[in-house]
Design goal:
Elements: H1 2-35, H2 39-53, H3 73-91, H4 95-104, H5 125-130, E1 144-149, E2 159-163, H6 164-180, E3 188-191, H7 199-211, E4 214-216, H8 223-233, E5 237-240, H9 242-254, E6 266-269, H10 276-286, E7 289-296, E8 301-307, E9 314-316, E10 321-326, E11 340-346, E12 354-363, E13 365-366, E14 378-379, E15 384-385, E16 390-392, E17 395-397, H11 399-406, E18 412-421, E19 428-435, H12 444-462, E20 467-471, E21 486-488, H13 490-493
Parallel strand pairs: 3-4, 3-5, 5-6, 6-7, 18-21, 19-20
Antiparallel strand pairs: 1-2, 7-8, 8-9, 9-14, 10-11, 11-12, 12-15, 13-14, 16-17, 18-19
The structure holds zinc ion (ZN).
Length: about 500
């Protein structure tokens, strides 16, 4: 009994000492950063240490993979500052940035806080194209262990490179949003994303393995085989684009597969903009919990942000990315909560550190502590791309708004196409909508009523009158990757 008491006290003393030790190390690190003349080396070592701690193998808490997700705000900002300066130093090895820094008179020492990021140059897709294939490489080529590329369908892809440390970091970032969305180590996940240059398949694949769950690398396409594997392998979770999840849901219905023969509980959906209404449809038809995540190859791939169980936006992994939300025309910050273009600095990557990448993705940012415990800023789902923004008769419309309107109407299946023409002066907009088999009717009056309902819903959402064309079930083309929703014939007419 006496021995037991002594042991307990000894453990308490040990724990208290350890806590004190780590506090002192943290304070010392901060003081040294400010005072020491060898600031650069300390920052680099500190940066590497911080990057390494992101490679933990066990969840920090249920639904939280890494302690960096719940750091106090001031510690996140301090970490961002250290990593930003370290990143600028690494960017000096990239001729593109060296030239820009010279033009703007910037050195790592001219950055005194994270807010000074506004002094730094932007990076665009065109810059990647101009420096194709490896102009943005910041390390010797022999240190690269993997290449990926953008999914661009025209011209040459954007090539991105990774060191082993980058790949470790990336797997950890994906593990964060997977755990946040409910993935556990005993689960099996079917990845129906494309593998190859596209970052989605490999990013999620290694993230799932990092969590300790099992991967079925089914890759995209061949829906019949996807259904067979889902039944035979009893996958708990599915990874794909939202539009492909819809295809799978349709196919399950079409093939008459009994839902009880599937073990699916979760879906991790991303790589294209989708709506809340689409989530409701998918969750109902597949009987799953679907969570959203975001990323793009230019800044690492998937893993920039992901949803928590609160579904109050996607938590940005701020210890590795600094995200700004800017007006795409003026490049000035938009007020919090307002939609703007996301501009992302990828501050931890070794092979290709990227400053202020203009994503063209439109979303809003939201601060404030989330009930899940994470302290990081959240971003809304992507409401569109500044490139995809349709200016119809002078009104700004994102295809996602039309989708949102369609999904409020029962019977209007979420398969649609927007066709824009300009026969004379005015734009003519036609929305081709597939009708669900249950509602498809030979009765003219039923179809006319449905058409009016859809017209009204779209007008309410966008303020524009659009012609509606109702189509029989399964008549529109299906996509295995990103869906092509808009056919804009105006350019041909002009
Ligand atoms: Zn949260």
């Amino acid at each position: 009994m006496v021995l037991h008491c002594t042991d307990t006290r000894w453990y308490l003393v040990l724990i208290t000492n350890l806590v004190c030790f780590f506090r002192i190390v943290r304070i010392l690190g901060s003081v040294l950063k400010i005072l020491c003349p060898c600031q650069q080396k300390i920052e680099t070592v500190f940066g590497i240490l911080c990057r390494t701690t992101a490679m933990s193998q066990e969840p920090y808490q249920p639904y939280i993979w890494d302690r960096h997700e719940i750091l106090p705000r001031e510690e996140i900002r301090a970490l961002q500052f250290v990593r930003l300066r370290d990143c600028i130093r690494r960017c000096l090895a990239v001729p593109f940035y060296r030239k820009k820094f010279d033009e703007l008179g910037i050195s790592p020492d001219s950055i005194h806080s994270v807010d000074d990021i506004t002094q730094l140059p932007f990076t665009t897709k065109a810059d990647f194209r101009d420096n194709y294939p490896l102009g943005f490489l910041a390390v010797p080529r022999e240190r690269i262990v993997r290449y990926h590329g953008s999914t661009g369908t025209t011209g040459k892809p954007t090539i991105v490179a990774y060191t082993q440390e980058d790949l470790d970091l990336w797997a950890g970032l994906c593990a964060r949003f997977l755990v946040s969305g409910g993935l556990q180590s005993h689960h099996t996940v079917q990845v129906a994303f494309g593998y190859g240059l596209f970052t989605g398949g490999f990013g999620l694949h290694y993230g799932i393995e990092r969590v300790g769950a099992a991967v079925i690398p089914a890759a995209s396409g061949n829906t019949k085989r996807q259904l067979m594997l889902l039944q035979d392998m009893q996958a708990d979770a599915l990874v794909c684009t939202p539009s492909y999840a819809l295809n799978i849901a349709d196919a399950i219905h079409h093939e008459g597969i009994d839902r009880s023969r599937l073990a699916l509980k979760l879906a991790f959906l991303g790589s294209e903009p989708w709506t809340e209404a689409m989530r409701e449809t998918l969750e109902k038809s597949l009987d799953i919990k679907g969570s959203n995540n975001y990323g793009l190859s230019e800044v690492i791939g998937p893993g920039v942000s992901g949803e928590c169980p609160e579904r109050s936006g996607m938590h940005i992994q701020e210890d590795h990315f600094i995200v700004e939300c800017l007006n795409p025309d003026t490049l000035e910050p938009v007020p919090e909560g307002q939609p703007g273009e996301l501009v992302i600095s990828s501050i931890s990557r070794e092979a290709m550190p990227i400053l202020r990448y203009r994503t063209r993705d439109i979303a809003s940012l939201h601060s404030g502590k989330c009930p899940c415990g994470r302290s990081t800023i959240r971003m809304s789902r992507i409401i569109g791309r500044s490139d995809d923004l349709l200016i119809l008769r002078g009104v700004n419309v994102f295809p996602s708004q039309i989708e949102e309107a369609l999904l409020t109407i029962e019977g209007a299946a979420p398969h649609y196409q927007i066709v824009v023409d300009r026969p004379k002066i005015l734009d003519e907009i036609r929305v081709r909508v597939e009708i669900s088999p249950e509602l498809f009717s030979d009765k003219m009056t039923d179809m006319t009523n449905l058409k009016h309902k859809i017209e009204h819903a779209i007008q309410q959402m966008t303020g524009l009158h659009m012609q509606i064309e109702l189509l029989p079930p399964q008549s529109l083309e299906r996509f295995e990757g990103k869906a092509k929703r808009v056919i804009d014939n105006r350019k041909l007419v002009d």
